[in-house]
Design a protein that fits this description.
Number of strands: 11
Radius of gyration: 20 Å
Structural class: alpha/beta
CATH topology of the largest domain: Rossmann fold
Helix content: 25-40%
Shape: elongated
CATH architecture of the largest domain: 3-Layer(aba) Sandwich
Mean pLDDT: 93
Distance between the termini: 42 Å
Low-confidence stretches: none
CATH class of the largest domain: Alpha Beta
Number of helices: 11
Length: 285
């Protein structure tokens, strides 16, 4: 099935293989999805710190390990395998409880053989903090280099001793092949891959795409790579932290997905388009 030339284009800022389900939900409501990967994930240049904490996890040094993304699951699994063990074995040996930020992360942990003890209803840092018990033991918090401090600060405020460690880095696409963390590939019809040049070419034709921003880092990369403008687009945020990053750029999100499922994102895109005027990306001065 080709994409409909007359349908409004929606640009998902992800690799095509990680945007299949969102693309299906967009096609189901008559929109024409494309993929434009701007960021990628790779292991830190020096993995010693996170490898040491994984060993400590296996020795029982932590009461909890808190996992906030699929990339973290992939990174920890890769690092464990490089030491000849599995992530599941380390968690079992150390007896730590496991919290996942949302159902997608919990599923990946379960696929890796890790039992998950806590998944909040609201898949966000705030939701996780609201559901997390008070306590005074040690918590391991492996995160991306760009992750905000809200979770570590909030857990410390609940009495826990938090060890935050960099599990992976968010880098401009494409990552170094030797350190790249493979994203979770989805089965199904891949949305067509766009280049930044093809996105810029929408403007002269008067095409106003919707753009699905999947993380704060994609907001920065979009500004850096498409900042020559002008481009009119409808910004859609996948969650509250991404919405805040859009507002910082002066691009109030046309809509924020109430829940980060493909259907929730498709509803947010429809809402952004129906609200009227697009955001204009002006050239850098």
């Amino acid at each position: 099935m080709g994409h409909d030339r007359t349908a409004r284009p929606v640009i998902i800022l992800r690799h095509p293989a990680r945007a299949v389900h969102i693309a299906e939900a967009l096609r189901a409501v008559g929109l024409s999805p494309f993929a434009l990967p701007l960021t990628d994930a790779e292991l830190p240049a020096h993995t010693g710190a996170v490898a040491d904490e994984l060993e400590a996890l296996g020795r029982g040094a932590y009461r909890w390990v808190v996992v906030t993304s699929g990339n973290t699951v992939q990174a920890l699994s890769m690092l464990a395998r490089s030491r000849g063990v599995t992530l599941a074995a380390l968690v079992d040996d150390g007896g730590a409880s496991v919290a996942a930020v949302g159902s997608a992360t919990a599923r990946l942990l379960a696929d890796a053989g890790v039992a998950v003890d806590l998944v909040p209803q609201d898949a966000s840092s705030g939701g996780l903090l609201g559901a997390f018990p008070r306590g005074n033991g040690a918590v391991l918090l492996p995160q991306a280099d760009l992750a905000p401090d809200d979770l570590s600060t909030g857990l410390a405020a609940r009495g826990w001793s938090v060890r935050r460690v960099e599990a992976y880095r968010t880098v401009p696409y494409p990552a170094d092949p030797a350190r790249r963390i493979p994203g979770i590939e989805e089965r199904g019809q891949l949305p067509p891959l766009l280049s930044t040049g093809e996105v810029a070419a929408f403007a002269p034709g008067g095409v106003q795409p919707a753009v699905v921003f999947t993380a704060p880092s994609t907001v920065r990369q979009f500004r850096e790579r498409l900042g020559e403008g002008p481009l009119a687009f409808f910004p859609v945020a996948i969650g509250r932290t991404t919405a805040a990053a859009l507002r910082q750029q002066g691009w109030g999100p046309g809509a924020t997905a109430a829940d980060p499922t493909p259907q929730g994102i498709a509803r947010a895109v429809e809402h952004a388009i129906s609200r009227g005027g697009p955001t204009i990306l002006h050239p850098h001065h």
